[in-house]
Write a structure and sequence with these properties.
Strand order of the largest sheet of chain A: 1-2
Radius of gyration of chain A: 24 Å
Helix content of chain A: 55-70%
CATH class of the largest domain in chain A: Mainly Alpha
Order of helices and strands of chain A: HHEEHHHH
Structural class of chain A: mainly alpha
CATH architecture of the largest domain in chain A: Orthogonal Bundle
Number of domains of chain A: 2
Oligomer: homodimer
Number of helices of chain A: 6
Largest sheet of chain A: 2 strands, antiparallel
Distance between the termini of chain A: 48 Å
Amino acid sequence: MNIGNVSEQSGLPAKTIRYYEDIGLVQPSRRENGYRDFAVQDLHKLAFLGRARSLGFGIEECRTLLSLYEDRERSSADVKAIAQSHLARVDQKIEELQALSATLRDLVVRCHGDDCPDCPIMDDLTPSDLAGTRKHPAGTTL
Amino acid sequence: MNIGNVSEQSGLPAKTIRYYEDIGLVQPSRRENGYRDFAVQDLHKLAFLGRARSLGFGIEECRTLLSLYEDRERSSADVKAIAQSHLARVDQKIEELQALSATLRDLVVRCHGDDCPDCPIMDDLTPSDLAGTRKHPAGTTL
DNA sequence: CCTTGACCTTCCAGTAGGTGGAAGGACTAT
DNA sequence: ATAGTCCTTCCACCTACTGGAAGGTCAAGG
């Protein structure tokens, strides 16, 4: 199977598929003309990778998941551990962004948004006293 | 003022300050020995940038904010517009991550996490029918 | 005067995960 | 023969830095 075909079937851009070969996630064989020749198993791997990436797993996690995917003796505990740690990272990121959102929302609400230069957003960004008491006490920012 | 001093006062690593000079966010003068010589205004700019970056504004947004910071004739509406569009992006990202979190949480909860290879997480990742009906209908993933 | 150590300089490379584009070979249809 | 599409490799670019090497500068101590 040619790369264009695999790209269409897996939903991954051909560029991405070549990149995945580059970093060793798939090893398609080559025809005499130099074209990559993908087996059905390669297609499955690539679709698997596409789904795993869409769930936000990193490339190295995908590599591990892929080896578990091909391991009939795997324990689901190994898979679950990876997913759990990924989930924890996602939730951590959500919390950070929510704190950010709250700060930004407050600033935006308080800003009149008119022709005057007075602006609470700018006031927040403006350094007031670099050596003394902080405007933003420790722990406010993430 | 030397870069080490500015780094300490602004809280930004010296590397980052040099980088900001590279991309034109600050233009410190040079001494005869080649050392950068930062004015107090440069220090203020850098502290401003540090705070803006900690609020998640991108470098190009920071560049615009910095020009507004130095513009006494600015209208707060311009500042607000930038903050609002940034806030919208943050909130968009939060929604994506929340959808992701929900999916992952569901998979993690349903996975026994034992020595058996049976695993709902793997089932989700495993491509079932590449040409036919999708396991994950359009719109499920972000 | 010399050395040590802290500080400064530039430049190159790498991070994550690709994406865009150029230059050129291969295949298919007319 | 040629046009058009597909394939190949390679190099550069994206964000926003960060690490490290090689080397110049400065202040203090012996």
